[in-house]
């Protein structure tokens, strides 16, 4: 009888824990993808994982003091150079598809999207700018249809020094812990398939 009570208590605790709402941020820039989760005052970097501290290595005292006195980050990040637009276009459909069963239950409180067109000269700028806006036309409906988006900002521009278009994406979101686990499992499988396919294509190109 005691065993069933313990199991029931554990099951109830897991159900209640899955209903806890958590927050987080996702940022895509030239530096790569950065994902953080927030549990109240606790902030955890999910991706990329932090490098493991070497045995016996201690954090410098100055760094400890900086971390202790660090102020909470602002909701709007500092502007950063964007990453490749092609990579973002490949990943976002996977994210939207993985979130399909949680349709609009993931709340995006703030979404920033900056897309920069690459043009070698003013004559090509109009064509490049049109291509960038077409890309946004593909990306934005995926986000609108699968997430409950609050504050948003979309900007486009042209850079004559770039060789290919770039994009910067920042989003602050919140969802239930159980939804986060489900979404992470779906995304993990889809990302593995995506990168496996890309590696195979790269191997074929190198063989040729």
Automatic annotation (TrEMBL):
Protein name as catalogued: DUF2953 domain-containing protein
Region (Disordered): 46-84
Organism: Pseudoflavonifractor intestinihominis
Segments of skewed composition (Basic residues): 50-71
């Amino acid at each position: 009888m005691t065993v069933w009570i313990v199991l029931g208590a554990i099951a109830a605790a897991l159900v209640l824990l899955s209903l806890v709402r958590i927050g987080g941020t996702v940022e895509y820039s030239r530096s790569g993808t950065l994902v953080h989760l927030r549990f109240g005052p606790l902030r955890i970097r999910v991706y990329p994982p932090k490098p493991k501290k070497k045995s016996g290595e201690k954090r410098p005292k100055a760094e400890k003091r900086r971390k202790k006195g660090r102020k909470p980050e602002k909701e709007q990040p500092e502007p950063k150079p964007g990453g490749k637009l092609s990579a973002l276009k490949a990943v976002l459909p996977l994210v939207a598809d993985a979130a399909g069963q949680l349709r609009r239950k993931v709340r995006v409180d703030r979404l920033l999207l900056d897309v920069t067109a690459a043009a070698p000269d003013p004559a090509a700028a109009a064509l490049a700018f049109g291509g960038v806006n077409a890309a946004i036309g593909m990306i934005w409906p995926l986000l609108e249809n699968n997430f409950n988006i609050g504050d948003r900002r979309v900007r486009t521009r042209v850079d004559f020094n770039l060789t290919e278009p770039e994009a910067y994406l920042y989003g602050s979101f919140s969802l239930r812990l159980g939804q986060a686990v489900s979404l992470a499992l779906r995304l993990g499988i889809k990302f593995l398939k995506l990168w496996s396919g890309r590696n195979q294509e790269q191997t074929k190109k190198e063989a040729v």
